[in-house]
Amino acid sequence: MASILEELEGLFPAAAAESVYDVRLDAISPDPLQPRKEIDPAEIDELALSIESSGVLTPILLRPNPESPGRYVIVTGERRYQASRRARRTSIPAIIREVEPHLRLALQLIENVQRSGLRPMETAQGVAALLSSTPGLNQAGAAKLLGKSQPWISQHLAMLDFKGATSEALAEDLLKSPETARRFDQLPPDDKRELLETARSTHAPITRTAVAAAHADTPSPPPAKKTGRPQKPKMIPLPPVTATQLTLLFEALGLGPVPRGQTDIWELLLSRLTP
Question: Does this model's pTM top 0.70?
Fold first, then answer.
């Protein structure tokens, strides 16, 4: 059984050799499962101006709509489709072919990641859907498929587990990278909420610098108490004394004369005083 990579390698040469049709825009529908949920209107306006002057240079890829004969669903090229509508075109050059569901998702992810970056959460959801819908595809295979590293894949998938303010910020496209999202999620709840509300009010994303500054302002937790055997108390050396001082001390304590030849006089003194 061919791998998804082998299937895709076979798809592109076949598509290149196929006929290009001029398909009416009103016979085409976007794919509701497309990973990209929102397209920047400014991006569409810019592409529409290019299409007005030069037309659509690269055909889009369509598949027949099984529920509506004579109609088609976009596999790749939704931005070109939307821009053609904005440019008041009535048709668009397209290649028409059947594409297996898991290949559709792979093609859409590849196009979106390479041509115009998805939101981090859209990418994470798309990669998760690709892995779950493609038997035998693991994170290493997905990384190769998308031209990314395996850590890039795992970092995006990790975002699906974030909750609370972090999840809200990602959903609102106020966190622009997995690493910034990870560091943001490590902040205390009040700090996360403050940064999120600031981003909402200013309509500006939460930057890595802002997250780093919040971490710097967060007091460090007290060091954990050590467990195990208690440490032996340190012995503090006793100060030296003169012969006169020692004689006076022995007489005052009623210990008699100072013994001659005793090397550790303090030890002797303690032994005399200890019951």
Answer: no
Q: What is the mean pLDDT of the chain?
A: 80
pLDDT higher than threshold 60 for residue 236:
no
DSSP string, 45-97: HHHHHHHHHH---S-EEEEE-TTSTT-EEEEE-HHHHHHHHHTT-SEEEEEE-
Other CB atoms closer than 10 Å to residue 257's CB: what's the count?
8
Burial class (CB in 10 A: 0-12, 13-18, 19+), 135: exposed
Distance of CA 261 to CAs 243, 248, 265, Å? Answer: 12, 18, 9
pLDDT per residue over 68-125, tens digit each? 889 999 988 888 999 999 999 999 999 998 887 777 777 777 777 766 567 888 888 8
Q: Say how far apart CA 226 and CA 207 lie, in whole Å.
A: 37
- How many CA atoms lie within 13 Å of 222's alpha carbon, on the beta-carbon side? 2
- Which strands, in side-by-side order, build the sheet including 21-24? 21-24, 91-96, 60-64, 72-76, 28-29
DSSP one-letter code for 177: S
Angle at the Cα of 2 (from 106 to 123), degrees rounded to 5? 15
- Domains of the chain (ranges; CATH) run 15-100 (3.90.1530.10), 162-215 (no CATH)
